[in-house]
């Protein structure tokens, strides 16, 4: 299939590209490199031993989108592009709504203009908000608790309405839980700007010596050891879910939201131990207060993904930590040092 990949240079996009190219699918990447570097795409090309075009541009720019659609004539879109930092979204909500929501509308309009009818969208488990029950299934009420999460919620609704307005369109809204890990080669991985917000990149930077210790955000939650529990999903499994989703979208019409997780949870301290095992390095921890907005537990119901996509997660947390360490130890400064 010819697939336009927005945000393809980012963490999840680059891992998905690799699998798309190996299938092989034809891809065009559209990215403004606001949170990534062309180096990631160079490495994807090397790993896949395949070439593809890159269109530097913003999804809010309809003219740029027209150029890309005209030149490449994509049959489907995988839409990763957007801003993703929960904390920043409280500071600059309008930027989040502009890039994420208006950007997605521009993309859908371009798809409409160029008769492209299939889309797979990066949504997030953050759309659920506070758990009324666990695990979260796709019928759980949606009540996101931060502007970032609300952008994902609104985009989901917009895509649902767009699909409903047409006979022949399909959208798969993939609700990722906590993506971690890296390609086994250690050549591509997560390379956050500045101090990482997320647990596993933070632990990795402690293990490699860039940061002194991990601040554990609370040990008084109602979990096995008092620290927050999350459903971590290996980025390779997540990338495979996109391949399954794009094939599903090509075969059906309509809109489906689908969780992507393992259905198993790990606490902060369990992740620290797994990382110490994987890296052979100590990860010093300081227990501190809870982080605002955090919840005790997030856990995915995964039967819908198995039923509709024939997809299951295969990696455990040891594999997630091993591959993260592989990447971090080979690239202590991320892509910068290349
Ligand atoms: P990332 O920041 O690494 O990748 C996003 C990519 O999109 C970057 O390459 C960035 O340069 C590009 N981009 C951003 N705004 C753009 C714009 N307006 N026009 C064109 N390109 C733009 O993030 P990621 O972790 O790979 O996440 C990919 C998607 O998955 C995002 O939509 C994110 O919200 C979603 N998601 C991520 C997580 C996670 O924990 N990583 C969890 C759930 C959902
Ligand atoms: C995991 C656990 C923290 C950092 C976020 C977004 C969510 C989605 C995935 C995009 C929690 C604890 C963390 C640290 C810690 N992204 N922690 N010390 O908050 O579950 O989800 O990323 O859609 O929308 O909210 O992930 O990795 O930040 O935290 O103790 O330095 O680790 O309290 O229990 P989170 P996370």
Question: What distinguishing features does this structure have?
Answer:
binds nicotinamide-adenine-dinucleotide, 338 residues, Rossmann fold, alpha/beta, seven-stranded parallel sheet, binds UDP-4-deoxy-4-formamido-beta-L-arabinopyranose, 11 helices
Give a topology summary.
Blueprint: E1 2-6, H1 11-22, E2 26-31, H2 38-48, E3 53-56, H3 62-72, E4 76-79, H4 86-91, H5 93-113, E5 118-124, H6 147-164, E6 170-176, E7 178-180, H7 199-207, E8 214-217, E9 229-230, E10 232-234, H8 235-251, E11 254-260, E12 266-267, H9 268-279, E13 285-288, H10 303-309, H11 317-330
Parallel strand pairs: 1-2, 1-4, 2-3, 4-5, 5-6, 6-11, 7-10, 8-13
Antiparallel strand pairs: 9-12
Helix pairs in contact: 1-2, 1-8, 3-5, 5-6, 7-9, 7-11, 9-11
The structure holds nicotinamide-adenine-dinucleotide and UDP-4-deoxy-4-formamido-beta-L-arabinopyranose.
């Amino acid at each position: 299939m010819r697939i336009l990949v927005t945000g393809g240079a980012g963490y999840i996009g680059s891992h998905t590209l690799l699998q798309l190219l190996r299938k092989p699918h034809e891809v065009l990447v559209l990215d403004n490199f606001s949170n990534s570097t062309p180096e990631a795409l160079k490495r994807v090309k090397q790993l896949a031993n395949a070439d593809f075009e890159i269109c530097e541009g913003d999804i809010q720019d309809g003219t740029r989108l027209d150029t890309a659609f005209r030149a490449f004539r994509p049959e489907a879109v995988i839409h990763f592009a957007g801003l993703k930092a929960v904390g920043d979204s409280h500071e600059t909500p309008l930027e989040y709504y502009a890039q994420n929501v208006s950007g997605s509308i521009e993309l859908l309009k371009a798809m409409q203009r160029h008769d492209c009818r299939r889309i797979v969208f990066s949504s997030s488990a953050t759309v659920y908000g506070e758990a009324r029950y666990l695990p979260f299934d796709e019928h759980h009420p949606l009540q996101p608790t931060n502007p970032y999460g609300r952008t994902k919620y609104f985009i989901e609704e917009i895509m649902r309405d767009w699909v409903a307005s047409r006979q022949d369109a399909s959208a798969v809204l993939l609700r990722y839980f906590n993506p971690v890990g890296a390609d086994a080669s250690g050549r591509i991985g997560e390379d956050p700007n500045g101090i990482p917000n997320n647990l596993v990149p933070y632990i990795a930077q402690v293990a490699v010596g860039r940061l002194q210790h991990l601040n554990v955000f609370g040990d008084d939650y109602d979990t096995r050891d008092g620290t927050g529990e999350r459903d971590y999903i290996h980025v390779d499994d997540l990338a495979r879910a996109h391949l399954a989703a794009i094939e599903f979208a090509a075969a059906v019409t309509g809109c489906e939201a689908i969780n992507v997780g393992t259905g198993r949870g790990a606490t902060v301290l369990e992740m620290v131990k797994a990382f110490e095992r994987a890296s052979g390095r100590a990860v010093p921890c300081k227990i501190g207060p809870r982080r605002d907005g955090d919840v005790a537990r997030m856990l995915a119901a995964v039967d819908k993904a198995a039923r509709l996509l024939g997809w299951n997660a295969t990696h455990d947390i040891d594999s997630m930590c091993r591959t993260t360490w592989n990447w971090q130890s080979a690239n202590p400064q991320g892509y910068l040092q290349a």
